[in-house]
Specification:
Structural class: alpha+beta
CATH topology: Glutaredoxin
Number of helices: 8
Largest sheet: 5 strands, mixed
Distance between the termini: 99 Å
Strand content: 5-15%
Radius of gyration: 22 Å
CATH architecture: 3-Layer(aba) Sandwich
Shape: globular
């Protein structure tokens, strides 16, 4: 009987240790460690794709963990790049709007990973990697190693990337972007503004092409 109680105490101790390790694993994700920093005042306005002289600018507020954002990025955006951005009609600007809730526990870390890639001139390749391998958003696991693998895959200097991520260098920039979006009435993602006006049309390549063409036609008519 004495040996039974000793064994029981050992099993309880092992169980408590496993629970403690599991708790640490859950809290090791980026959200738990996200710093409470003031919004950055560096004037950064987001990464852009397209010509600086494009007559139309689209600003997209994005949560990289958002499944709708991922579908838009992988299904609709390639056609937008080919049909509107490449011909010089549109300049596309990305602004971070990571939602802060349990279903988006890695949203801010994904934004940070993209910003740290941007520091090395690889924002768009990193964003493509995060969206095209979006199953990470459904696991709820710590994605640190996975994102580091994406960084390696696009050719980042991993020493610089690690320092940027571990120091959460752009946390203030991401917060500033989020607060800007909130002030503009953004309450979900993706949300778009076209030439400063909120876009309420269809979030498809056809919808954007029709809207941009109508803006350019009106601009041409005013000049004529």
């Amino acid at each position: 009987m004495r040996r039974f109680y000793v064994l029981l105490l050992v099993l309880v101790g092992v169980g408590a240790s496993l629970l403690a390790l599991a708790g640490r694993s859950r809290t090791s994700t980026s959200v738990a460690a996200w710093p409470d920093v003031p919004p950055a005042a560096d004037g950064f306005r987001g990464y852009t794709l397209g010509s600086d002289s494009a007559p139309v600018e689209v600003v997209e507020y994005v949560d990289i963990e958002c499944p709708i954002c991922a579908v838009f990025a992988t299904v609709q955006f390639p056609a937008i790049r080919d049909q509107l951005i490449a011909p010089g009609k549109v300049r596309w600007r990305i602004r971070d709007f990571p939602l802060n809730n349990p279903a988006h526990r890695n949203a801010r870390f994904a934004a940070l990973a993209a910003q740290c890639a941007g520091e090395q001139g690889k924002f768009w390749p990193m964003l493509d990697s995060l969206f095209s391998h979006h199953d990470w958003a459904q696991t709820g696991r710590d994605v640190t190693a996975l994102f580091r693998g994406f960084a390696q895959g696009i050719g980042l200097d991993l020493v610089r990337y690690d320092a940027c991520v571990q120091g959460q260098r752009y946390a203030g920039r991401i917060r500033a972007s989020y607060e800007e979006g909130a002030q503009r009435g953004v309450n979900g993602t993706p949300t778009f503004f076209v030439n400063g006006q909120r876009y309420t049309g269809g979030s498809t390549s056809d919808g954007f092409r029709a809207y941009v063409d109508s803006l350019l036609a009106r601009r041409s008519a005013r000049r004529g």
